[in-house]
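Quick start: what a row looks like.
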Amino acid sequence: MNISNKIGYNYKIVEFYHQKPHDNKVDSNINGKGVKLMEKAELLNFIGNKIKDYRLKKKYSQADLAKLIGVTNTSVSEYERGKVNIDADTLFQIADVLEAKVDDFFPARKSDSEPIDLMNEFRNINLDAKYLLMFKEMFDKANSMNEEERKKYLDSLKLTIEFHDKLRNN
């Protein structure tokens, strides 16, 4: 059985981190909102560093990992230094051996659940309804503004927070 077909692994993440045809950059945001492009070399280095971190946590040498996944020591060294592409099957094998999820080797991305998580966080804060309504008004106001107005508005809120923090620390 092909290891990338193992149940429990998210194969889509490997398919998603693809090279753009004309710019040697990879898209690192699955939902397409706030797309952050990353140089291919930067992504390979990120993946390599994560592999090394997980390998060291397991107290494996490069030779140990190489033997467990059926490649040479040199290959593991090149993966960790971001010098070569890692095919999907090998990446899944590495994740399996190091008891990690393939997603753990990639940069974090914004999820569609972030607004829901934020709303749930607000529910857990013990505030009067009038303050929750005030926050809603602030969000609605920011949402209704153009980019330039929104930046000024949010900067003014940031200054208010910083001022409050200074008062508390004095």
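That is the whole record. Residues 1-23, 25-35 have pLDDT under 50 and may be disordered. The two ends are 64 Å apart (CA to CA).
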